[in-house]
Specification:
4-stranded antiparallel sheet; alpha+beta; 12 strands
Length: about 425
């Protein structure tokens, strides 16, 4: 009997699967997106043109998540592209998590389409780990219409590795005694936390498989990869002490960014984009009763070069206008005049909102009034919708007054316009 039993549940091609089920069940479509070359992708006209999810048959053409749409169409000219519908995906994710909570009170949502479940206390209720996972997998398909992979192990790392084995619609185990047979022969790039740069350094050390990494000298790995070398060596040996956390970890920072549909070539437009980003960042901090001590701005130019610039604030804040003003100052200090395609605002080093503000002799700004105004606007938007209050500078502007994150055109789809 293991001290811990952890499941990792991952939806197979989540966005595509959820789109397919919705079209079949609610739009009466006779075509299943999962059965032919198809993908969910962004809007090229708004410069969000990448592949977000693809079918197995599209994958056979070499299409990968993150490919640009022109790249994907070059690989498969007949690829069917479905527009993203994040409102649908959020509803599907909630229904998915509700089923997982029927099996355990300890569920950690890792992303919109995957979760860890600590099954230690409840797994025997259904006859054992594999039997329980099979029951869970079948229930999700029966009630929600999409398939999942489930990995079973004694810790989160190995459970996640197991769920990535053969897909779709499978249950796999990866306990410690199974590591040499099931994991060590895999390429080192399959190991959690090993990206392209790390894999290149490992290849230079003659390490190409997870097994070679597991048997490597930790001192040599530390010399070449510092602390990260120790971490991935431990992972290669199946070591992971992180617990399944049912409560979200508090934010260490708040950020938002947006790709603008056109090149930004003047400071006034850039400031308007930054104000829209500050609106969303500020509202999220106020919701969590936090303030930030550091503000940073990120800029990506039309040639995809990028930079960031940050500053420690004199006083912590979550006031929208104060965040926007500081972001605007940072932008003007950093911008080199080149056309901009992407802007971001990040607020870091967060503290509790009850921290007091140090008054200054020659500063006559009424910060208390600004805070009350922001809180009132937040309440109105929550009650009557995000467009119920809008700053005058955004009226008749192509810039969204609440910029960044998932844009509103991605939150729903006009299926009638698509002919469905």
């Amino acid at each position: 009997m293991f001290d811990k039993i952890v499941f990792h549940i991952d939806v197979n091609s989540a966005f595509l699967s959820w789109e397919a089920v919705h079209r079949i069940e609610h739009r009466k479509s006779t075509r299943d997106l999962r059965e032919f070359p198809s993908a969910v992708g962004g809007d090229i006209s708004k410069r969000h043109g990448i592949i977000l999810a693809k079918s197995i048959s599209a994958k056979r053409f070499g299409i990968k998540t993150g490919d640009s749409i022109p790249e994907a169409l070059q690989k498969c000219p007949k690829l069917y592209l479905a527009p993203p519908n994040y409102g649908l995906y959020e509803r599907c994710s909630r229904a998915f998590m509700e089923i997982l909570r029927e099996y355990s009170a300890c569920v950690e949502q890792y992303s919109i389409d995957e979760a860890y479940v600590d099954m230690t206390e409840t797994v025997e209720l259904w006859g054992g780990a594999v039997e329980t996972a099979e029951r869970m997998r079948k229930q999700i398909y029966r009630e929600l219409g999409f398939t999942v992979n489930i990995g079973i192990s004694e810790n989160k790392l190995l459970a996640k590795m197991a769920s990535d084995f053969e897909k779709p619609n499978k249950v796999h185990t990866l306990f410690r005694e199974e590591i040499p047979q099931k994991m060590w022969g895999l390429p080192v790039t399959d190991l959690f936390f090993v990206g392209r740069a790390t894999a290149k350094k490992l290849r230079n050390l003659g390490i190409r498989t997870i097994g070679e990494l597991a048997k490597g000298d930790p001192e040599i790995l530390r010399a070449h990869l510092k602390k990260h070398g120790e971490v991935i060596w431990a992972f290669a040996n199946g070591m992971d002490v992180s617990a399944v956390e049912s409560e979200p970890i508090p934010n260490k920072g708040y950020g938002n960014s947006t790709t603008v549909a056109f090149d930004v070539t003047d400071a006034s437009t850039a400031r308007l984009v930054l104000l829209g980003l500050a609106e969303t960042v500020g509202s999220r901090m106020r919701r969590d009763k936090m303030k930030a001590e550091v503000v940073s701005v990120g800029i990506k130019y039309d040639d995809f070069t990028q930079l960031s610039h940050q500053r420690v604030l004199e006083e912590p804040t979550n006031i929208t206008m104060e965040l926007a003003q500081r972001a605007g100052q940072l932008f003007e200090e950093a911008w080199n005049g080149k056309p901009i395609r992407h802007l971001g605002v990040h607020a870091g080093r967060v503290v509790d909102q009850d921290v007091s503000r140090q008054l200054k002799l020659f500063d006559d700004t009424d910060y208390e009034k600004l805070e009350k105004m922001d809180r009132t606007v937040d309440q109105i938007r929550r009650r009557f919708g995000i467009d119920s209050v809008k700053r005058a500078s955004f009226v008749q502007s192509p810039i969204d007054h609440l910029s960044g994150g998932i844009s509103r055109e991605k939150r729903s789809v006009d299926y009638e316009r698509l002919g469905m």
